[in-house]
Amino acid sequence: MTDIRQTRADRLHARLAGLGRRARAFEHEPLPPGTGIAERGAQIVAGHFLFRGYLVEAAETSVWDLPLPDDPLFEADLHGMAWLDDLAAQGTRKADVLARDWVHDWIARFGRGRGPGWRADLAGRRVTRWIQHGEMLLDGVPPATRRRFFRALSRQLTFLSRRQRSLPMAAPRLESLMGLLVAGLHLRGAGRHLSRATTGLANAAETLIDAEGGIANRNPEDLAIVFGHLAAARVALAEAERPVPQAITDALVRAAPVLRCLRHADGGLGRFHGGGRGQPGRLDRALAQSGVAASPPGDRAMGFARLSHVRATVLIDVAAPPEGPGSAEAHASTLAFELTSGRRPVIVSCGAGRSFGEKWRRAGRATPSHSTLALDGYSSARLGASGDGLLSDAPRDVRMERRRSDRSTGLIAGHDGYVADFGLTHVRQLYLDTNGRALRGEDVLATVEQSDEAIFDRALDATETGHLTFRIRFHLHPDVVVQPGDDPKTVLLLLKSGELWSFHHGGAAEMRVEPSVYLDSVSLSPRATSQIVLASSAADYATRVSWTLAKARQTPDAVRDTVHDDQPVIA
């Protein structure tokens, strides 16, 4: 009911917004455009429209005449017009003409406040792009078309000023406020929006970024998006010689080291709790705009631990997942890890599957979709039975200790997500050699308290086999080629860079290489990949499995990685 009321209110305000004041020209030169992807722009020019995991192929067709998939997020991406960045990055005459034609076609169809796209976050995204790409969008147009452009901008600004508070305090609210800010700085007659925009952004900075520089949902990509908006606001205000609210500056100072900690060696973010790797170049740009001096990455932030030596980075989820409303996209990923070597991800999680539908979204949140241990048929946290998508029965006691020596840096961590039902605590040790050539791990399922033993005994009695089966999974990036090793306990992993890694395990476990998927919102569909699975069972009060992932001896410490992503690995 709330969504229906909000939609009705949006429609009413969109139609009434035409009564507001009108801007007629740019006061200053438009902002430089955002970071687009030229390859994606080339796809759009060729008639291949990929949004939210859906591909619509329609050459020589207006973007507003596309046959739409049954997903409102696809249509929202169209009307937000972030694709203008990609067309601008493509940089050809045809891309410029398409961008110009489609924007003015939108004005003709929807610019009077009717139809889809009249939502405060989409309007904010759209206004920002129109101003950033104003020179391209107005190049060579007749005076009447130019007047209609500024009339449509003015209507959207009036709508934004009235509706931005209808959005929850999250990234969408920031998008609407950024639209007001950019317009207030660069449109003649729109300066009245500046005060509301700067106040709103300052409040958002204080509310969204906590005292430690993190964000409540523990999603690294969401933090990067919020940080990017605030960094862009700082630059825009500074360049216009306007005061930057102290709350924005302080939030950037808090969040910058957190984001540096959550990046892999290749610059991508850890893919945890619904977040992806982030658009290439966007975080680098935001960090540069923030004005926060670079510093070496820390070893723990926002509930994640980082191990890093030479060319290798490991990110580990060492905290309980978010609770309450913040867990709507959270994953049961406690003690899962990712490993990247140089430019190449090696061990990954399956990722967020919401681009491919509800079934993939739910599957991506489960513990078996992460590189960690899971009891067969169970996750360390469960989706609530109420149907709201929130996590329940999550680990409450998650502990971690650092371990350091001359040869390695590591940690020992544990969680109680399986104690209530099975009496078992999962304890994981990880050690990264200081030369970055080997990651050594051990996973233990054990009873800690005497009361846990009684729970474990009852759980065993309830089975037909007298033991509890579990699997330790190591999901591999799709570019990793798996080859058999010299013995049943070893497999070899070949990276596109030419690096060769060897995975070996010890203990009573059976190793298998099984199919897996890599869920990425920029892909057409879930990408097929592989996973190493160590299958074992717990029949005693303590069961342990050890393993090692190490570079082969013939792999040099420094590899000149010149292979492009579109070049196949030759095994």
Automatic annotation (TrEMBL):
Its main location: other. Transmembrane segments: none annotated. Gene3D superfamilies: 2.70.98.70, Chondroitin AC/alginate lyase. The lineage of its organism: Bacteria, Pseudomonadati, Pseudomonadota, Alphaproteobacteria, Rhodobacterales. It holds the Pfam family Hepar_II_III_C. It comes from the Bacteria. GO terms for molecular function: lyase activity. It is found in: Cell envelope. One of its GO terms (cellular component) is cell envelope. This is Uncharacterized conserved protein, heparinase superfamily. Residues 301-548 form the Heparinase II/III-like C-terminal domain.
